Amino acid sequence: RTTAKPQPLRTDTDLPAWLVWGGSLVIGLLSWTLAPDNPWVILMVMVFGFIFVTVSSRIVGLVGSSSSPVSGMTIAALLGTTVLFLHMGYTGTGGMVAALFVGAVVCIAVCTAGDISQDLKTGFLLGATPWKQQLGMFIGIVAGTSVIGSIVYLLGDTYGFVADASHPNPLYAPQANLMSIIIDGVMHGKLPWDLIFLGMFLALIVECFGASSLAFAVGLYLPVGLAVGVMVGGLVRWARAGINAEESGEDPGVLYSSGLIAGEALVGIGFAVLASLKVAYDFAAGILGGWEIAVTLVLYAALTYSLWAASKTRTA
To answer: How many CB atoms neighbour CB 63 within 10 A?
Structure first.
């Protein structure tokens, strides 16, 4: 008498392993085709990707996506790859492009791993089927990557990322500029290692005081125009934390802030489309006379108050 093999639970069914390994092989082959003169690109992508994807997934699963140090892991992979390529003799433009490619792939892998871990954890709590979630993630990644490249190209062509004659007011790209500084500095032997080690020790000191070194570092390298908004939002949440803690553990302001971020991004892309089509959208410029700053402050105060109001915990 033979016993039937027990069927796995619906909530324990993932996509087959061969699909995962096959996808990894395809990524490796694509990496080699984009940098055929440097076979080490595949190894760097696999090694750094495996290490940092594991770290990202665990951090997101235990703490949350906001605590995933994507920038730090990307910079670490970029720094390690560039140093190795330099000692292997892969220098010049080809070596820098290969190092940038490794850093970009690792960054995307880390971000995707965090998102997938968060989705699977949520699905587990809700009783979803893992393989269906994973299939949906594949579709989402393909759909997203099919438009992200064109949007980045549109923004770069319209506004630029580096100040020059055709783009006097480029977009802020602190992470991209930092990656460029690292690659160029290592390849040409002018990277300020003393500042890097100083930053490491500062992060250690900040952590010893019980503060988040990630938030501290973000506040240092972000432009003031962006950091002010982050600071104001943090102050609103800090002020609301005590009130909401007495009512419940929820924080509805996070959802409202997420909507503000997404809305700002969509509006910015819309303006870029209009600018690329040579459609004037600044028809209202100058109608306020000398009151632009005052009106801006009033609108900013109203936006801050809306965040304060939205952060109030709803009671049944």
So the answer is: 10
Q: Which amino acid is at 29?
A: L
| DSSP secondary structure code for residue 7 in this structure | P
The answer to whether the CB of 105 falls within 8 A of the CB of 49 is yes
Complete DSSP assignment for 46-71? HHHHHHHHHHHHHHHHHT-GGG--HH
How far is it, in rounded angstroms, from Cα 94 to Cα 250?
Answer: 50
- Tokens representing 273? 């489309």
Residue spans of alpha helices (H) in 63-211: 70-88, 92-126, 130-158, 174-187, 193-208
Angle, helices 17-34 vs 40-62, to 10°: value is 130
Task: Please write the tens of the pLDDT for every residue from 271-294.
Answer: 888 877 777 766 666 777 778 888
- pLDDT tens sequence across 4-33: 667 777 777 888 888 888 887 887 777 777
> Closest Cα to residue 102, out of 18, 186, 174?
186
The percent of residues in the chain predicted with pLDDT above 70, rounded, is: 90
pLDDT of residue 283: 65
Tokens of 64: 């949350």
- Sign of the Cα torsion 84, 75, 22, 38 reads negative
Give me the residue spans of the domains in the chain.
10-191, 223-316
Is this model's pTM higher than 0.70 or not? yes
Determine how many CB atoms are found less than 10 A away from the CB of residue 110.
29
CA distances 55 to 39, 111, 204, 216, Å, are: 26, 11, 19, 21
Joined together, the tokens standing for residue 197 give: 């080690």
DSSP 247: H
Angle ∠(107,211,248) on CA atoms, nearest 5: 95
